[in-house]
Design a protein that fits this description.
The chain has helices at 99-107, 125-136, 138-151, 183-193, 204-211, 222-225, 235-240, 247-250, 265-271, 317-328, 336-340, 373-381, and strands at residues 53-57, 63-67, 79-83, 88-95, 117-122, 157-163, 169-175, 196-201, 282-283, 288-295, 300-305, 308-316. The chain contains twelve helices and twelve strands. It has four domains: 1-124, no CATH class; 137-206, GMP Synthetase, Chain A, domain 3; 231-273, no CATH class; 282-340, no CATH class. It is of the alpha+beta class. Helix 3 crosses helix 4. 26% of the residues lie in helices and 19% in strands. A five-stranded mixed beta barrel has the order 1-2-5-3-4. The chain has a four-stranded antiparallel sheet with strand order 9-10-11-12. Strands 6-7-8 form a three-stranded mixed sheet, sandwiched between helices.
């Protein structure tokens, strides 16, 4: 379903049409940092008042908390007008109820904070029309702003523009390697677009999250759908997982190492705790063997003699430990191939075409006419 607040069409500001769940459906919206309200169907005790803070989603991944001081009956998907430093902004309700407390704890926001602004009202028709018109100008504004920044020879990239709901302010999101003096740029942008200008620097990962896209896995980007904690990713994560250090495969759409390299890293680190040091050579009477590769979950290690690097010899982890223990005592086995013979080989099941489904001409065969003996008997009798 498309979304007005993230320039992907229309639908984020409306209630779900299919399940009739009154705004608590998990499939409604632009699918950017959505939170499923699993407490939506549970009523609070009569002695407890509903939590007075609402989570509001703006364009792309920007979310903020606002106080429902007017006690408005709001559900997920309602378009509301909220307070800002200058004028008002238009956003969409993304979460209500007790789960907002959990979101505030995750983001480190105190419910008693004075920085939490209030919700004015549900958006009127004029508010939505003005908001939609302001959003329609964002793409052209971004293109013009990029050209102005290029003319000023500023080493920065403007990745997104977000207009305030009333059209009086615009936020320019940019990425830059070094510090940028954009004072002259702000003056030109203010004179050109006749709005208040705010420049906000973001990282490459945050930029990818705002723009969105499809990853190599075929799913939407994690930074765009659910990931909010951008931890540093190093090449050691790829080394521990025995991945080839190919920048084209390890880099995401942001140009940085993929965040998913950290997802299974802890499992690999736990698995290789008792693995022997791969820097040590295995010494035999035939020669010294060097480590070549490792299969962590099969607990297999491959070694090769220095004078014959192309011939890999598979050994179990326990065998490698035994050889290293013998080497420390000054004992050298005859050959590593004798130790690898005891490794049970996996049985490979050959594919058998039992019913002939691989034949390309199986439907072209002429159907044989079946004999009907009963009919023949009737004809003979007649």
């Amino acid at each position: 379903m498309g979304c007005v607040s993230c320039k992907t069409g229309g639908g984020c500001g409306t209630l779900p049409a299919g399940c009739k769940n009154n705004g608590a459906c998990g499939i409604n919206g632009c699918n950017k940092l959505n939170v499923f309200d699993w407490l939506a169907g549970i009523e609070l005790p009569s002695s407890i008042k509903p939590f007075g803070i609402i989570e509001i989603r703006f364009k792309n991944t920007r979310k903020e908390f606002f106080r429902n001081s007017e006690n408005l009956e709001l559900v997920i998907g309602d378009v509301v007008a909220v307070e800002t430093t200058s004028g008002h902004d238009i956003g969409v309700v993304s979460l209500t109820g007790e789960l907002v407390k959990v979101q505030m704890e995750i983001k480190g926001v105190s419910p008693e904070s004075k920085e939490i602004r209030k919700i004015y009202r549900k958006a009127k028709t004029n508010d939505i029309e003005r908001w939609t018109f302001a959003r329609s100008q964002e793409n052209d504004t971004m293109v013009k702003a990029r050209k102005i920044a290029t003319d000023l020879k500023l080493q920065m990239k403007i990745g997104d523009v977000e207009f305030q709901g009333d059209g009086n302010k615009a936020i320019f999101y940019y990425t830059a390697e070094d510090r940028v003096d954009f004072r002259e740029l702000i003056k030109i942008l203010a004179d050109t677009f006749k709005v208040r200008i705010e420049m906000k620097q973001i990282g490459a990962r945050q930029e990818a999250g705002r723009i969105g896209g499809i990853g190599d896995c075929g799913r939407e980007l994690c930074c765009s759908t659910w990931l909010t904690d951008f931890r540093s990713v190093s090449t050691s994560a790829a080394r521990y997982q025995q991945l080839s250090l190919n920048p084209m495969k390890l880099a995401g759409q942001c140009g940085k190492l993929k965040c998913c390299l950290n997802y299974e890293l802890d499992s690999y680190l736990d698995a290789i705790k008792d693995f022997p040091n791969t820097d040590k050579w295995l010494k035999t009477k035939k020669g010294d063997a060097v480590h070549q590769k490792t299969d962590i979950f099969k607990r297999m290690m491959w070694y090769a003699y220095k004078d014959n690097r192309e011939n890999f010899i598979p050994l179990t982890v326990d065998r490698v430990k035994e050889v290293m223990a013998c080497n420390e005592k000054g004992i050298y086995p005859e050959d590593l191939t004798d130790l690898s013979r005891e490794i049970p080989l996996e049985k490979k099941h050959d594919y058998e075409n039992v019913v002939g489904q691989d034949s390309l001409t199986r439907f072209d065969r002429n159907k044989k006419h079946k004999h009907h003996p009963r009919k023949n008997r009737k004809n003979k009798n007649s």
